[in-house]
Specification:
Blueprint lengths: L10 H28 L2 H7 L1 H12 L9 H17 L5 E2 L7 E2 H19 L1 H13 L1 H16 L7 H25 L3 H28 L17 H8 L1 E3 L2 E3 L7 H20 L4 H21 L2 H25 L5 H22 L1 H7 L6 H20 L9 H5 L13 H34 L8 H15 L8 H31 L14
Antiparallel strand pairs: 1-2, 3-4
Helix pairs in contact: 4-5, 4-9, 5-8, 6-20, 7-18, 8-20, 9-11, 9-12, 11-12, 11-13, 11-19, 13-14, 13-18, 13-19, 14-15, 16-18, 18-19, 18-20, 19-20
InterPro entries: O-antigen_ligase-rel_domated (IPR007016), WaaL-like (IPR051533)
Pfam families: Wzy_C
Subcellular location: Membrane
Length: about 525
């Protein structure tokens, strides 16, 4: 035969090939139909993996050379972030035998699809991500190890199915937003969108909190549509609300008041940033008022961690802001005054926390919060022997059953994410998870202090937010706001790569290039 030609298959071979194809399709369809009819709904998830593999192969085979659906990725990311803070996660569709289909989960799927499409179709995006990861290798080593431990601990989990489902969910809700944020937030417009989103969400939650406090219960407690009602004991406790010292504790769209307080304290640095970056007295007073409103909303939660988070936000903000002002304006008195007065003020506050009852009870604990303090001490006392008995961890979502601490009501509880991570993923998990906090805080602080770009000033609220989440996670185990942790990590990586690492590398490159000799200029002697 001539080159470039091939022999046409015989009619018999064509018939056999088509017959085998149709027999395979029919057999697979009968098998899946039999599984749907006989197996419990929970097991159907595992039979969807071949279909998922085919979808992934299709995405992988898409042609390269375009930017992919970048607009869809951006929209999906911000929609996912919005539902975290303006929509209750417990308002979800429940299909018997399946996990809740919540708005958070739906948008995480959309985010996953758009992110995979962009990664498959855009070589430029892959190169940019690889470059940013290369500039922050220690972080990605810790992140990869932490997520790998989700799967490496499956064989030692006492409930493999539960651990598997939770690990898969955390990849979608934590891991993929981390990668998306790492790519998206080197663009100034996305940084501004994020700031606006946080401030709008704060306004919505503050209004809901005030109305909820006046109502004495959740505003939608008796108005949840039937198709969004899930039959769960935890949901019933959420709808009943909680009271401390005879006062109702607001929760807004979160599962507990503690998570609302955590989010509000996380938003404080953005109000401070607006106040300190404005030269207009009216705007400054407005953002100071917003800061006070946030304090009032935190007080309505009756959560000490909110007060602690607010204090951490103000402390870190003033420390870094004063240091940069001192570095930028050496003869200015405000920067040195704040920086030099900071140790004295911090010492005075620590003294007040230890010896002034009113300050002690609102921060460290005491009074009506004594039971929470005692239970947390007991939990840490129970935690250490179980950690050292198995320093490799007990598997995802196993911390509650492993610790086996019960409230007087009989409910199993864990009151510290330090305990949760340690029991789930062991000593290595603790080092990686909390190591990411220290590393990204250092990157955010460095980006803010070394860059003169206006957009890089948003690294200051990022540094404050990371510090807040670190301290709050020591005394809070609920996972409502954990996606925010990984989003802030990704934002910090993106901003550092653009505003700190890239200018530094360009400066080194410029220094390495010898100056050109102008016409008529003498060459230096060798």
């Amino acid at each position: 035969m001539l080159p470039g030609y091939r022999q046409e298959p015989s009619p018999l071979r064509k018939l056999v090939t088509k017959s085998l194809f149709y027999v395979t399709i029919v057999t697979a369809s009968l098998f899946y139909g039999l599984c749907v009819a006989l197996l419990p709904p929970l097991f159907l998830l595992y039979f969807s993996f071949p279909v998922l593999v085919l979808v992934l192969l299709t995405i992988w085979a898409l042609p390269d050379g375009t930017r992919g659906p970048l607009g869809l990725l951006t929209f999906s990311f911000f929609a996912f972030a919005a539902v975290l803070v303006i929509w209750p996660d417990y308002m979800a569709v429940q299909i018997p035998g399946f996990a809740w289909i919540s708005a958070r989960r739906i948008w995480s799927w959309m985010l996953a699809l758009s992110l995979l499409l962009c990664l498959s179709m855009s070589g430029e995006m892959r190169r940019e991500l690889a470059d940013r990861m290369g500039k922050t290798k220690p972080f990605w080593i810790m992140a990869a190890t932490y997520f790998a431990l989700h799967w490496l601990t499956l064989p030692i989990s006492a409930t493999v199915a539960v651990s598997f489902n939770q690990s898969l969910n955390q990849v979608f809700v934590w891991g993929l937003p981390l990668i998306a944020a790492t790519f998206l937030f080197d663009k100034p417009k996305n940084l501004r969108r994020w700031e606006v989103l946080i401030l709008i969400a704060v306004a919505i939650n503050c209004v809901i909190s005030i109305l909820e406090y006046r109502n004495g219960r959740l505003l939608w407690a008796d108005h949840i549509p039937g198709f969004l009602t899930v039959q769960d004991e935890v949901l019933q406790r959420i709808l009943q609300g909680a009271i401390r010292d005879g006062e109702y504790r607001v929760t807004s769209v979160f599962t507990v008041a503690l998570c609302l307080a955590e989010f509000l304290s996380l938003a404080v640095p953005y109000a401070l940033h607006r106040a300190f970056s404005s030269n207009h007295l009216g705007r400054i007073l407005f953002w100071v008022l917003v800061d006070l409103v946030l304090l009032g909303a935190i007080i309505l939660t009756r959560a000490r961690l909110g007060i602690v988070g607010l204090l951490v936000s103000h402390s870190v903000f003033l420390l870094l802001w004063g240091a940069k002002r001192w570095m930028a304006k050496g003869r200015d008195l405000i920067g040195p005054a704040i920086s030099l007065a900071y140790p004295v003020a911090a010492s005075a506050f620590i003294f007040a926390m230890l010896f002034v009852p009113a300050v002690h009870n609102r921060t460290i604990g005491g009074g009506s919060t004594g039971f929470s303090d005692d239970s947390r001490k007991v939990q840490f006392h129970m935690f250490w022997p179980k950690l050292f008995r198995n320093p490799f961890g007990y598997g995802t979502a196993r911390s509650g059953d492993t610790l086996d601490y019960h409230l007087p009501s009989g409910m199993v509880t864990v009151d510290s994410y330090f305990i949760s991570v340690g029991l789930d993923y062991g000593v290595l998990g603790l080092i990686c998870f909390f190591g990411m906090f220290f590393y990204t805080f250092a990157l955010a602080s460095r980006t803010y202090l070394t860059s003169n770009s206006k957009e890089a000033e948003l690294a200051l609220p990022l540094a404050c937010g990371i510090a807040v989440l670190f301290f709050v996670r020591l005394v809070l185990s609920q996972s409502d706001n954990v996606p925010f942790i990984f989003i802030l990590f990704g934002m910090t990586i993106a901003m550092y790569a653009r505003y700190a690492a890239a200018p530094k590398r360009q400066g080194l490159g410029a220094a390495a290039v010898p100056a050109r000799t102008m016409p008529g200029q003498l060459q230096p002697a060798e």
